[in-house]
Structures are given as C-alpha cells and as structure tokens.
Amino acid sequence: MKLLSVKDVLKREEDIQHPEVEYDVIKELGDKTMRYAILSHRWEDDSEVTYEEMIGLMKMEKPKRDALKKRSGYQKIIKTCKQAMENGHEWLWIDTCCIDKRSSAELSEAINSMYRWYQHAQVCYAYLSDVEESTFPTEENDETYDKSNGWPEWFTRGWTLQELIAPKQIEFFNKNWASIGNKQHLAPVLEEITTIPCDVLRDGLAGKRLSVAQIMSWAADRKTTRVEDRAYSLMGLFEVNMPMVYGEGKKAFQRLQLKIIRRSSDHSIFAWDHWMIRTGSVLAEDPIDFQGCGRMEKVEPDEFGDKLAEYMKLYRLGNPWYIQLNSRKISTNPIHQCRVAWLKWRAHALSQQLRTYAVGNAGIQYALDPALPGCRAVSSILRGLSRHIQCSRFSISLITKTSMRSAASSCLTTSMPRTMDSPAVTPTHTNSLQTLLHSRPSQMVLL
Questions:
Q1: Greatest pairwise CA separation for the chain in angstroms
Q2: 240-269 per-position pLDDT tens digit
Q3: What is the tens place of the pLDDT at every residue in 316-369?
Q4: What is the pTM of this model?
Q5: HEC secondary structure over the chain
C-alpha cells in the first residue's frame, strides 16, 4: 500500500520553487499496522494527478509544474493533506496518486484491497465538490443537483458505495473544504439518499443478515466510467476477489455473481427483475436489474417453513371449529389439527429441498426432490405467501426452469453463459419475482 507522507507533501509545497530539494512524498507501507486517513471523492476528467506526476513534480520544467499546481486535482491533494495534518494524521491515501496505474498487477491488487483499505482507515474525508452550502443537504434539490437525481453527485458514483459503507468514521466536506457533518449523525439522511439502512451505515456490514439482492440494489442507480467497474466496485461488499480484465464489458458482472454464488447459498442473487424478457441465463446483466430488491431480506429454511405453514393454516384450510378462551381461539376440529400438523411438516421438508449445491464449468446446479406433489397448489400458496410476507418486510419468490429430461431427474444445470452447449436444458425466461411454477418443475429456488 502506497501512502502519502502528509508532512513531506506540505513541506515540498512550501519549497516548490527550489527544485533541487528532493522529497520522498510517497512510501510503500502496510495498511494493517499504519494509522492513516483516506480520501473519498468524485474524479474530475483531466484534472487528477497521477502517481507518476506526483513523484516527479520537482523534476518537471517550471511551466509544466506551475500548470499542474493549478489543477483542481492537485489542490484537492494539498487541501486533504492540510486537513489530515490538522487532525494529527501523518499518512494519507488518495486513489488518484497512490496507485501506479502503469502496473496492471498493482492496479489489480489495489482494487481487490480497496474495501479493506477504507475499512482500516482512521478517518475518511468525503469531498463533495458540488456542495456550496455550509450545511449538508437534507432535502432533494433537482435544480442544484439536476444531473444526479437531486443529491450531490458523490452519491451517484459506483466506487463511493463501498467508500460510504467501509470506513468507521466519515467526515463530509463541501466545495470550500468546510466540514458539513459526519456519517454517524447524518445516517438518517444518508439512508434516505442511498436506501442503505442506518445500522449498516453506522456499524458496517459485519453481523448483519443482509441478502445479496438487497446489497446489489444499493448499486442499481450508480454509475461508473468503465462498464467493468460496475462489478469491480462491488467486490469488497461481498468479500470476493477476482482479477481485473478491462475490456470484458458486462462479463465482469457475471463473473462477480459466480464468485458470490460459490461462497454463499443466498438465493436472492436470482431475484433480479427486468422490464425486458431475456433468455439464456439466470444471472443478471447489470446491478440495475436489482433496483426493486431494496427490502428483500434473508429467510432461513426453518423460518420459511414456519411462515409457510402459518400462512397455509390461516388462508388455505378454511375456518376451523373453535372455542373462544379469553383472547385465544382453540381449534376443536381434529381434522383441521391433523392438516395443520401435516402442513408444518411438509413446509419444513419443502424448504430443505430448495437449495443451491454446486457451481461448475457447465453452470449452476440446483437440487430438488422430483416427487414433489401438488405443484400447482404449492405455486398458488407460495405466491399468496409472497404477497402476505412482503407486508411484513419479507420477500419470498421462486425461479423455475423446465428441462427436456424427464421429471424424474433430481438435479439440473441452469442456463449460464455456455448452457446452449448442453442439449439437456431449454433456456427459459427467468423473471425472478414473477415466474410461476410449472405443473412438474425440474427445479425451484427459494428466495
């Protein structure tokens, strides 16, 4: 990890007219033992200062050096160093000048480590260059921020999502580098802007039972300059690593999803939705496909079984005979009681059968007991249960595939990038929240 020496950067700035003096402004250090500040900002085209320019400033000819000093990107570095010095920090990391992007290996290491670097920082300075007011904007303003959905543009960029979540402490600064608040106190406003829950903003992702689809939804409306960065900027949030292949386009997001599937059994990754019918893959093409998944929560198999049984008991078995005892209703119909007991057992059995169990070169495989009775009835029940539970901030959905093989097959490889090579699979539309069960489905995925 390359870090700026705050003292040397500011000292060199004072002696800028004496090019014979050498300053070692950037040093290679470890992030686990060092105490450092870090900058989060929106990149500005053609004004940012690179690693090569930062270390070679004093060797430049005077006209070129003076021109570089006038850049807003250079002034941003100096202002950040002054703020770090004021707060007692000796070291600072800024992505524009602390990564030697001439080295693909160093760039890949930095991108894969970036979430951890922001997480380990003592403080993160978030510079909102388009905020001119002396206070943090607490209401949407389409006139002032007409190009960024009514909020500062920092909140629309892809990389700033992890830079908002990872650091323990964030200080926000306006265009003139005046402090306008911190993440802890502004959490309710930040939740309104980003849809990220307050507890995640204040305490991070650790220990939270968040679904993959919900995290993806936070990135749905964000933008990156490079298409591949839509995926690369999310790696830290899902604790996955993968090599950078700029030029692969949307394949980067497919690779990211496969990495997530290999380390997580969270089926909500298939809960994406899209206005346009697509065939050939159960994977989303872009984070925007998860735009409507912000309130989707994880439901463990046993929890799902309990909710399914409760719903069927209340809405599918009719009104039982019962007696009123205080505020309790006690069923006196033995047939009804037997039905309830059987439904509870069947609901738990069903929830255990719906699972992802393997990811290979041929695709993603699901397992399901083929002898599942009454699929049309189960389809109706689960659709009703989905509507019922969504009112309680839960979401349940199914994804199905139809196989050309007989229904006796207990597992099936889904249509993935190379599924067309397999004659055993018929690619079908997988609009995850709306797909209904066929009469004899080959597989189902519980979300």
A1: 96
A2: 999 999 999 999 999 999 999 988 888 889
A3: 555 555 666 677 766 666 666 777 777 777 767 766 666 555 565 555 655 444
A4: 0.76
A5: CEEEEHHHHHHHHHCCCCCCCCCCCEEECCCCCCCCEEEECCCCCCCCCCHHHHHCHHHCCHHHHHHHHCCHHHHHHHHHHHHHHHCCCCEEECCCCCCCCCCHHHHHHHHHHHHHHHHHCCEEEEECCCCCCCCCCCCCCCCCCCCCCCCCHHHHECCHHHHHHCCCCEEEECCCCCEEEEHHHHHHHHHHHHCCCHHHHHHCCCCCCECHHHHHHHCCCCECCCCCHHHHCCCHHHCCCCCCCCCCCCHHHHHHHHHHHHHCCCHHHHCCCCCCCCCCCCCCCCHHHHCCCCCCECCCHHHHHHHHHHHHHHHCCCCCCEEEECCEEEECCHHHHHHHHHHHHHHHHHHHHCEEEEEECCEEEEECCCCCCCHHHHHHHHHHHHHHHHCCCCCCCEEEECECCCCCCCEEECCCCCHHHCCCECCCCCCCCCCCCCCCCCEEEEC
pLDDT band at 421 (very low <50, low <70, confident <90, very high): very low
Cα 419 from chain centre: 27
Look up residue 223 and give its two tokens.
Answer: 């933008």
- To 10 degrees, the CA torsion angle through 43, 49, 52, 58? -170
Q: 149-153, 183-187, 360-364: which range is least confident on average?
A: 360-364
406 pLDDT above the threshold of 60: no
